[in-house]
Amino acid sequence: MPIVQIKTEINSDIKTCFDLARNIDLHQESLKHSNEKAIAGKVTGLIKQGEWVSWEAKHVGFVQHLTSKIVEFNEPNYFVGEMVFGAFKWFRHEYHFYESANKTLIVGKFHFESPYGILGKLANFLFLRRYMEKLLKTRIYFLKAVAESS
User: Fold this and answer.
1) Which of 94, 71, 100, 75 is CA-nearest to residue 15?
2) Mean pLDDT, residues 63-68
3) Total structural domains within the chain
4) What beta strand segments (E) does the chain contain?
5) What's the superkingdom here (predicted)?
6) CATH of the domain at 39
7) Residue among 113, 132, 3, 117 at smallest CA distance from 60
């Protein structure tokens, strides 16, 4: 099962980073290039424990629908979203936040399993893992820019 991990240091306090990472509006803004839109559930504002959001976006040439739910939440230290519906066989996206000297280290971990057995594993190897890493970096660098400009 592939894991994408991204560590990013941000010159901002932990509470600001935590709130920006769970902000639905900022998520949509950061992934505008894929026309990512929240279409059901929590569609604006700050998502929290037990809430869910359904997304529509264009990825790898196809319109995708995905629903994830916040299954773990400890403000401002971490939150976890898991897929309840979508193209993956399974995924779990963790955000961990560590503060030191008014800087925050965000560690994002994206665990996923593709459907279709050996074909899914081949897709992971050929492009999907790299695609997801690039997508997550785009999102976190956008979050960093917003956090450091406020």
Assistant:
1) 75
2) 96
3) 1
4) 3-10, 37-41, 52-59, 62-74, 78-85, 90-100, 103-113
5) Bacteria
6) 3.30.530.20
7) 132
Cis omega before residue 2 (within 30°)? no
Residues 6+ apart with CB under 8 A from 7: 105, 106, 107, 108
What percent of the chain clears pLDDT 70, i.e. is strictly above it? 100
Residue 41 Ramachandran class (φ > 0 left, ψ -120 to 50 alpha, else beta): left
| DSSP code for 11 | S
What global pTM score does this model have? 0.93
pLDDT score of 14: 97
The rounded distance, in Å, linking the Cα atoms of 12 and 2 is: 30
For residue 51, give the DSSP letter: -
Between 102 and 19, name the one with better pLDDT. Answer: 19
Greater confidence (84 vs 102) lies with: 84
- Among 34, 40, 1, smallest CA distance to 142 is for 34
Q: Tell whether the model's pLDDT for residue 84 goes beyond 80.
A: yes
**Six-digit token pair at 146?**
């917003």
Q: CA-to-CA distance for 96 and 32, rounded, in angstroms? A: 24
